[in-house]
Specification:
By secondary structure, this protein is α+β, with helices and mostly antiparallel strands. It contains five helices and six strands, in the order ββααβααβββα. The strands form three sheets. Strands 1-2 form a two-stranded antiparallel ribbon. Strands 3-4 form a two-stranded parallel ribbon. Strands 5-6 form a two-stranded antiparallel sheet. A hairpin with a 2-residue loop joins β1 and β2.
Length: 150
């Protein structure tokens, strides 16, 4: 799906630059540039198969850079969702983790003004892919954990 000499992926209305030139000039709708670390996180996240999840930590290990927190920050600011499926990332203890800046669900929700609604939405998206969680918010089937290493 490339156009001309630049590697740019178009999916519906989604524009995902893949050439270095296009990435160097790309700006989000807020006018911000995407860092090389964010591009690495987005590229890796795109490889996670539907119906599988991985952890923030496993992304760091696979990339050989960053921290679980830096991966979470990149995904919280993901301008390419759902093409970059950030909903497929969970915490290392297999907890649902965060989504759109919220962490946890219901009584387990953490953060100011955190309703847990975003994480419930994340669980619903994953359920449609066959990934389910316990009532407490933990991955129900550990065989769905995907560890993609180069």
């Amino acid at each position: 799906m490339s156009r001309g000499s630049h590697e740019t992926v178009f999916t519906g209305k989604m524009h995902y630059p893949s050439s270095e030139k296009d990435r160097n000039t790309f700006k989000t709708h807020n006018g911000k540039r995407v860092t090389p670390h964010q591009w690495a996180v987005y590229d890796f996240t795109r490889t996670i198969p539907c119906g599988r999840v991985t952890t923030y930590k496993d992304i760091c290990v696979a990339l050989g850079q960053g921290s679980p927190r830096s991966v979470g920050s990149a995904l919280r600011n993901n301008p390419f969702a759902p093409f970059v499926p950030c909903h497929r990332i969970i915490a290392s203890n297999l907890y649902i983790g965060g989504f759109f800046g919220e962490w946890g669900t219901g009584a387990n929700a953490r953060g100011q003004k955190n309703t847990g609604l975003q994480c419930n939405r994340k669980m619903e998206m994953l359920a449609k892919e066959g990934v389910t969680f316990s009532v407490e918010g933990y991955l129900a089937d550990e065989s769905l954990l995907w560890i993609g290493r180069g």
